[in-house]
Amino acid sequence: MTRFIMSLDEAVNLVLFAFEHGVSGDILVQKAPACTIGVLAQAVKELFHSNDEIKIIGIRHGEKMYETLLTNEECAHAIDLGNFYQVPCDKRDLNYDKYFIKGDTRRNILTEFNSNNTQLLNLKQVKEKLLSLEYIRNEIDEWEIESSKQEAATSKDNVE
Fold first, then answer.
1. Phi and psi based region of residue 20 (left: phi greater than 0; alpha: psi -120 to 50; beta: remaining)
2. FRET label pair with 129: which of 2, 27, 35, 42, CA 20 to 30 Å apart?
3. For residue 118, what are the contacts with CB-CB under 8 A and spacing of at least 6?
4. How far is residue 110's CA from residue 107's CA, in Å, rounded to a whole number?
5. Are 26 and 109 in contact (CB under 8 A)?
6. pTM score, two decimals?
7. pLDDT digit string (tens) for 18-67?
8. Residues forming beta bridges with residue 28, ordered by sequence position
């Protein structure tokens, strides 16, 4: 099971990019990496020095194995903008006569953009991505301080 991973800053940058480059009705998608849920769980476990077991409960009813950000049909019209895909709004009029006479046989080679066919991060890369986020580093620091206090209290109790 795979999921895209994107920081809050990256999400804000996507919105700002859409404001600057998008037109009303366009779809803009960031080319975000993904990872398996298992790799993400292991990364969090290791960063917080947890000894807890990762319990695999399996897929739930209605849950998807991967996320799809652009469908096959949307990819047919997608424009590659480097770190983003843009799918322009379909602004054709209802005069379909011209599409019976002259069509467009060109097709984008991208067939679908989902969390299973994008760059999949390994454990080391997920940990690096998580550690690049200040709020994650702050949580780890707080956890380590609290853990040290608990260890000190436990060793003090054992001495007495």
1. alpha
2. 27
3. 4, 31, 32, 33, 34
4. 9
5. no
6. 0.75
7. 999 988 899 999 999 999 999 999 999 999 999 999 999 988 999 999 99
8. 86
What would the pLDDT profile of 118-146 be if each residue is shown by its tens digit? 999 999 999 999 999 999 999 999 988 88
CA pseudo-torsion sign 79, 85, 89, 90: positive
For domain 2-133, give its CATH number from 3.30.70.260, 3.90.180.10, 3.40.50.720, 3.30.450.20. 3.40.50.720
Residue linked to tokens 């803009």: 28
Token pair for residue 135? Answer: 């709020």
What's the angle, vertex CA 68, arms to CA 63 and CA 74, rounded to 5? 145
* Domain residue spans of the chain: 2-133
| Residue 3, φ and ψ in degrees, nearest 5 | -140, 145
Distance of CA 46 to the CA centre of its chain: 20
Please work out, in degrees rounded to the nearest 5, the angle formed at the alpha carbon of residue 76 by the alpha carbons of 70 and 37.
25
Question: Which two three-digit tokens encode residue 134?
Answer: 């200040």
